[in-house]
Amino acid sequence: MYPFYELSSIGISHLPSILDTSVWETEFLSQTNGFDIDEETVSRLKEIAPYSCGRFQKELLISRLDCNLGPSAAYYDDMAQLEDDLAKIFQISFANYVLSRHASYANAGEFPEGCCGPSSRSVMASSMIHGIYSAASVVANGWYTHVYDIYPFILGKSELKGIILADPTSEQVNEDKVHMKIMVHPDYGYKKGRFLDISPRRVMHIGSLNVPGAILPSGQISWEDRFYDTGFNEYIKEAFGSPIVIK
């Protein structure tokens, strides 16, 4: 389990589902003493989120990449396995949030303003380091551009298909610090407020990171459009065709 914290089960009763992560947030912050974190806590959070707020463990990421993998979906035997990964994804996303606030990380503005792209790519990389290879960073292009993370999955013998959405800078689009929802195929809509569509359009995935230039010498993952070159419909079809069994 280490470096992850022990969190309560949130008891998902049905799918699709918008997750109420407030209990997890409260439990997580009780472990870190809120946002006033000491160096010991900083060290542990950096193990949870090895990529965060401008700190990049490049060699660790490269050592975990499988050059044979492209778009893929996690295969979960049951809801318990799914929820186990949900808790990890939440902690990776929230550790990124806490560390970024602690370091006063800024991109185009005070965190999280202007930080959706760097945060999404960092959460994707941290997820892969922890063996969650279904992680992908997605861009919603349109009048309003936003970047967040998705994790395709296939559930149990019924082979229910869907994606976990984790938005590590969702304060830009709603009130949650980290917004999470489980969506069932083929409904992958995501909105800012009631009307503004920020559903996934273009995708960066594990296969993208194996392209020369995707991981910069500093370890930072490139923000160039050419690494977000897979359309969502093409990506999700490939992902469901390449399940990874979770043990």
Would you kindly provide a written description of the structure presented here, covering whatever features stand out?
32% of the residues lie in helices and 19% in strands. It is built from 7 helices and 11 strands. 43% of the residues are buried. The chain is globular, with a radius of gyration of 17 Å. By secondary structure, the chain is α+β, with helices and mostly antiparallel strands. The chain has one domain. Strands 1, 2, 3, 4, 5, 6, 9, 10 and 11 form a 9-stranded mixed β-sheet that branches. Strands 7-8 form a two-stranded antiparallel sheet.
Low-confidence stretches: none
Give the overall shape, derived from the CA principal axes: globular
The radius of gyration computed from the alpha-carbon positions, rounded to a whole number of angstroms, is: 17 Å
| Strand and helix order | EHHHEHHEEEEEEEHEHE
How many domains in all? 1
Percent helix: 25-40%
Distance from N terminus to C terminus (CA atoms, Å) equals 14 Å
Strand tally is 11
The computed structural class is alpha+beta
Tally of helical runs: 7
Largest sheet: 9 strands, mixed
**Mean pLDDT figure:** 91
Task: Estimate what percentage of residues fall within beta strands.
Answer: 15-25%
